[in-house]
């Protein structure tokens, strides 16, 4: 069996991933014979027109089909996401992958009913067929399609200097090696360091039956560092990570130093941890965990669809005032859940 050394692995990865970091990465997804645009479409333009031929004329056709049987509202949602990931263990790249996800979602709303359809094929024929499927829920008179499309300027919430499509693996690996060496050097008891890297670029286009077109560009990156330490025959592991909608320059030495130190500190702290006594204990939750708890305990129950269908514990509270104190709301939610469990028994 062939076992490549590090230099051979890097060369192979560089050759393979370069297909996705060069402007031609859309060749396999574009229409046959259609010109392939640069991976970084200028802000304010419709990359789906450049890459797949989904221009304003086709969007108007799809919207016309969505409203052909009557609709209170309807929209077309296009999404294209290119993702890269790298895993490193003890300074050796153990895995690397690239992927492209794309598709369209179409929706028709009539009254309190919704018709959905989707397709991964962004050709004219597939989009129109999906539009007819979504519109099948309606059976009324056709809605007048938009005579003109109002294209909103693309937001610049996540504008980055260099798109991730232009950052190759040979640029990323030194950053992974840096944080791996940093973590190992912080404590002699560290015996294993695992690093996971991810970056992606997502482009979205939404067109409504009212004629509005909105687009967005969403970069994303994450670096995860997991550390295992061995102290007096006892092993402990913990991790830290950073993530955000930033570009490659965001990974400064200072930021990498911080995530490495957090991973090591969290791991070494476990050697001095004591088991809690049996019984109930007060627990203090950090902002992230407590937000998730509230979301799961209260948020889903407040969603409109669940209350409209009378399956939420809050369905009989529509139109009534509730205490603004979130603790009271959580207590009432827990009480209702307990009552529901007892009733089932």
Ordered list of secondary-structure elements with their pairings:
Blueprint: H1 6-21, H2 47-52, H3 56-66, E1 73-89, E2 92-110, E3 113-119, H4 124-135, E4 150-151, H5 169-185, E5 190-208, E6 212-231, E7 234-244, H6 253-269, H7 287-299, H8 304-308, H9 326-344
Total count of domains: 2
Strand % is 25-35%
Give the name of the CATH architecture of the largest domain: 2-Layer Sandwich
Q: Terminal Cα separation, in Å?
A: 60 Å
What is the quaternary state of this protein? Answer: single chain
* Strands, total number: 7
Count of separate DSSP helical elements: 9
Give the low-pLDDT segments: 1-44, 326-345
Using the alpha-carbon principal axes, give the shape: flat
N-to-C SSE series?
Answer: HHHEEEHEHEEEHHHH
CATH class value of the largest domain: Alpha Beta
Radius of gyration: 26 Å
CATH homologous superfamily annotation of the largest domain: PmbA/TldD superfamily
How would you describe what is shown here?
It is built from 9 helices and 7 strands, in the order H-H-H-E-E-E-H-E-H-E-E-E-H-H-H-H. With 345 residues, it is of the alpha+beta class. Strands 1, 2, 3, 4, 5, 6 and 7 form a 7-stranded mixed beta sheet that branches. Strand 2 and strand 3 form a beta hairpin. Helix 3 packs parallel to helix 4 and helix 5 (169-185) packs across helix 6. The chain is flat and about 75 Å long. The relative contact order is 0.11. Residues 1-44 and 326-345 have low confidence and may be disordered.
Features:
PmbA/TldD fold, 2 domains, 9 helices, 28% strand, flat, disordered N terminus, disordered C terminus
């Amino acid at each position: 069996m062939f076992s490549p050394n590090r230099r051979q692995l890097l060369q192979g990865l560089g050759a393979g991933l370069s297909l996705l970091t060069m402007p031609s990465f859309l060749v396999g997804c574009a229409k046959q014979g259609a010109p392939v645009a640069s991976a970084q479409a200028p802000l304010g333009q419709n990359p789906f027109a450049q890459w797949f031929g989904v221009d304003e004329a086709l969007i108007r056709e799809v919207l016309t089909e969505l409203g052909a049987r009557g609709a209170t509202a309807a929209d077309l949602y296009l999404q294209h996401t290119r993702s890269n990931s790298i895993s490193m263990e003890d300074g050796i790249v153990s895995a690397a992958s690239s992927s492209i996800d794309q598709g369209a979602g179409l929706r028709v709303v009539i009254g309190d009913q919704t018709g959905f359809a989707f397709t991964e094929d962004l050709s004219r024929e597939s989009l129109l067929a999906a539009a007819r499927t979504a519109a099948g829920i309606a059976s009324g008179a056709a809605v007048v399609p938009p005579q003109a499309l109002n294209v909103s300027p693309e937001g610049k919430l996540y504008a980055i200097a260099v798109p991730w499509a232009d950052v190759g693996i040979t640029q990323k690996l030194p950053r992974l090696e840096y944080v791996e060496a940093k973590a190992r050097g912080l404590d002699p008891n560290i015996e294993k360091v695992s690093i996971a890297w991810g970056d992606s670029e997502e482009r979205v286009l939404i067109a409504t039956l009212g004629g509005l077109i909105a687009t967005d560009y969403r970069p994303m990156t994450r670096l995860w560092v997991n550390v295992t330490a061995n102290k007096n025959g006892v092993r402990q592991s913990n991790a830290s990570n950073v993530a955000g909608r930033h570009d490659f320059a965001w990974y400064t030495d200072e930021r990498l130093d911080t995530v490495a130190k957090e991973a090591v500190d969290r791991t070494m702290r476990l050697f001095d941890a004591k088991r809690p006594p049996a019984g109930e204990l007060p627990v203090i939750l950090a902002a992230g965990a407590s937000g998730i708890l509230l979301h799961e305990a209260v948020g889903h129950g407040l969603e409109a669809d669940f209350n409209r269908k009378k399956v939420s514990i809050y369905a009989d509270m529509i139109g009534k005032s509730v205490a603004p104190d979130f603790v009271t709301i959580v207590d009432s939610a827990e009480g209702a859940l307990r009552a529901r469990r007892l009733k089932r028994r």
